[in-house]
Amino acid sequence: MKHLDTYRNQEVVVLGLAKSGVQVAKVLHQAGAVVTVNDKKEREQCPEASELEALGISVICGGHPDDLIHPGVKLLVKNPGIPYSVPPVQRALELEIDVITEVEVAYHLCEAPIIGITGSNGKTTTTTWVGKMLEAAGLNPIVAGNIGTPLSEAAASASENNWMVVELSSFQLKGTQEFHPKVACLLNLAETHLDYHGGMEDYIASKAKLFANQDSQDIAVINWDDPVCRQLVPYLKARLLPFSMTERLQEGLYADPPYVPDVEDDIERSIVYRDGAGVVYPIISIQDIGIPGRFNVENALASCAIAISAGARPDQLSAPLSAFHGVEHRLEFVDTLNGIAYYNNSKATNAKATRMALESFKQPIVLIAGGLDRGTDYLELVPALQAQVKAVVLLGQTRNKLVSAAQQAGLKAIELVDNGEDAADALTEAVHKAAALAEEGDVVLLSPACASWDMFSSYEERGRIFKQAVHNL
After folding, report:
1. I want to staple 134 with a disulfide (CB 3.0 to 4.6 A). Which of 128, 141, 188, 202 is the partner?
2. How far is CA 417 from its chain centroid?
3. 56 a known binding residue?
4. Of the candidates 280, 305, 323, which is a domain's last residue?
5. Is 123 assigned to a binding site?
6. Are 452 and 372 in contact, with CB atoms under 8 Å apart?
7. Closest CA to 185 of 36, 28, 298, 336
8. Quick check: is 428 in a domain?
9. For residues 427 and 440, is the Cβ–Cβ distance under 8 A?
10. What pLDDT, on the 0 to 100 scale, is given for residue 194?
11. What does the angle CA 173 – CA 177 – CA 21 come to, to the nearest 5 degrees?
């Protein structure tokens, strides 16, 4: 896209009235563009419309008019979740109109250097952790993006004295052109969102756009243990700062001594940083990290690498590493009832996230799983189900696929819940079934391995209902 002032008196369409759409419409309107906002929802479902119209912004609800996109439109900014297959986007592409997401607009607005964080799992935990680390180091972070505050809203108030710490999804990154983070981090890559991207090739390419505009003055933080992430290394133009759980790196962040893949042990480990001169800086004992799970050690390594890239000293990182106790819906402890511990991991929207959660516990687990069917077979879960799980309670579109995985793992205690007409009632029933299967010393874990949209409006709604059901046991 062009810089914002080039859209003065030019027609711009914003597709989707979510938080980011509302904010980007305001930004473009303030830049002098002639803005039309369109949402397929009916007017009564678009409470933001009146606010925008009061500013002089046109709002069209209830569908996509045939003449919405025409040769006079200079830019289409779409909500990240809207597929590229919808008619307005297809028409814009036919007319060679730029199709971008709000992140691209925000980049041109933002005066602060940007830290971009993406990956299939761990984005929110890592983004939050980095914000706390930079705050402890006095580096004035602003945390925004997919984590909550729209980036364009945060960018409007940012200065050169801030660091903009941004969680980014593949949906957002796919719609970028010139977006250029000073520090870019790719946490991991797993099979997910294939219904949107059409395959892993487009999904990986969308994630890789995070690095596309970096140069030798920038830093790329890469998970050295993830083979798909490693494949991108030859194409990076930025300075590489890797992190690893399983290897002592010549430069980067790593666990010491390294973990042996797929082997549980009680060895005491630390997170350390080795700089380019070979000097090693111990940061924290892993047992002192504030949230459990091997995958959170990986998130901690990434967070440290990002914070050091932004100018934090290694000795400033141990306090935020130990003080942070996690983000809601990410392996969140809910309660202990009758000696059974309940954990909410509703954000686990793919099989890899659930597998990592299962591997975080040594106690027997009763797993509640299931949700939107995106074409995954869930066989990746079989080893973790064999090793960690005593029983499963399954619901949602994928419950029969998960039954197959559980049977292959040799599980005998498999309970199904009828999805019914009320999703809250179905999940509450699942909690009661899990509680009946569990015994003192066990863990009941909601970790669906699926998105929520077959039954719930969001993973947050699913997690809140789970927690309420636990509290009502």
Report:
1. 141
2. 28
3. no
4. 323
5. yes
6. yes
7. 298
8. yes
9. no
10. 66
11. 60
pLDDT reported for residue 1: 56
Residue 388 tokens read as: 């960690």
Cα separation, 473 vs 467, in Å, equals 10
CA terminus-to-terminus distance, the chain: 54
Same domain, 184 and 270: yes
Q: Is 152 annotated as a binding residue?
A: no
- Give the predicted TM-score (pTM) of the model: 0.80
119 belongs to an annotated ligand binding site? yes
CA distance 234 to 213: 15
> Looking at residue 184, what is its pLDDT?
98
Q: Do 14 and 82 reside in the same domain of the chain? A: yes
- Asked whether residue 293 is marked as a ligand-binding residue, the answer is no
The per-residue pLDDT for range 148-162, each reduced to its tens digit, is: 788 988 998 899 999
Average pLDDT taken over every residue of the chain: 93
pLDDT of residue 328: 83
> How many CB atoms lie under 10 A from the CB of residue 3?
10
Same domain, 370 and 286: no
Give Cα 250 to chain centroid, integer Å.
Answer: 29
Residue 185 has what pLDDT? 98
Whole-number pLDDT of residue 260: 86
Annotated binding-site residue? 318? no
Annotated binding-site residue? 120: yes
Residue 96 in tokens: 């060679």
Question: If 0-12 CB within 10 Å is exposed, 13-18 middle and 19+ buried, where does residue 345 land?
Answer: buried
Contact assessment for residue 398 and residue 371, using Cβ atoms and an 8 Å cutoff: yes
Tell me the CATH number at 381: 3.90.190.20
Q: Give every residue of the chain whose pLDDT is below 50, as ranges.
A: none
Last residue of a domain, one of 55, 73, 100: 100
The answer, yes or no, to whether the previous bond of 257 is cis (omega within 30 of 0) is yes
pLDDT score, position 264: 63
